[in-house]
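Aim 2 progress update. The chain analyzed this quarter is reproduced below.
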Amino acid sequence: MTARHSWLDIALGALASVLLMFMVLLTFADVMGRYVFDAPIKGGFELTELALLVLIFAGLPLASRGDEHVTMDFIDKILSPAAQIMLQRIVHLLCGALIVGLSWLVYLKAGKIMDYGDTTDVLKVPVGPFVYVMALMVLVTGIIHVVKAFGPILLSQESFDPDKSATT
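Predicted structure tokens:
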């Protein structure tokens, strides 16, 4: 990871941090209210679900930007460096195209949810805007992969050693 982060990394990282802190505090308050005061927070579970939804989808572009997805490198050892770069470009382009297509489907689903007027059960929070956020984050992730397909590709010099313990 480089020392310089883009505004997207900072914004999504800050959003994820705030949401995670909100979820921790909400869960703490709900548990205390439930077991100490016999008064749980009304809709606490729904708020946690919605915050978790945004947290997960805000993390998706961050994982793609940092190349932190799970990968298998069993074929890399037999490819030349030029072939490895070409393979990574093809994979990024294919992932980008599929993810952008997925974002379109999520966007269409968000429109249907908005039309139906779906809300959460207890607090009656509209669900549609959250699905639009999902579509936006998936689109951003797809665009990141497309941009990576045409940008500089760094080959990892690290190889996996199952007998070596992790240092991070």
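The helical segments are 7-35, 44-65, 81-116, 128-150. The radius of gyration is 20 Å. These observations will guide the mutagenesis experiments scheduled for the next reporting period.
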